[in-house]
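Take a specimen:
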Amino acid sequence: MYDGASLNLPTWHGVVVRESYAQQHPEVVDAFLQAQTDATQYLNSNPMAAALSVAKQTKLPAEVVYLYNGPNGMVTFDTALKPELKDALEQDIPFLESIGNIKRLDLNAFWDPSYLDRVKAPIKPAQISGVDPVCGIPAANPTCLLRQVAKSKVRVAYVPSTDTGTRWFADKSVWVQDTEYLPFSTEEGARRYVAGHPGAHIISYAKALEGSR
């Protein structure tokens, strides 16, 4: 498996509209963007209900949908057109041209946040908040999560990969025991960490659970 976050470039999706159509039908563009904004606000306010709804329509497991769409998920639904996204697209253009997907792209003309400004669309990503009941600290420590899972029945647990921050299933992660328990989304990432940290070694999820008690 390959974790795209290792490229150090953001992955993102955007809305594209022909300039002529946007000029002729601004009300349609505004209504479309407003609908997206409303849906995003609902998703951020009701992450579990939204995940169950998407799962029902797509037949995907709700746990997978929540991994992407929930707070601190793999998809942020941040609607702002940020400079780092423009920089990433600029690096993509030569590749897209080389494989014939585009002939040329004037990025400055293509990149237009004015439509979002009209509907006041920018929305900040939903974040996890609160205090971990096991360790009494913000819920961002994989070892504390292991202890919670070990002592109680949970439907699913997610952890951020130590090297990239990508959120992944705790039981599908590759675990490393160092001075603490560290999850990785790929075996390559785990082995790279172990190679640079004497004494660290890869262990199974079951052993990580048992050792965290």
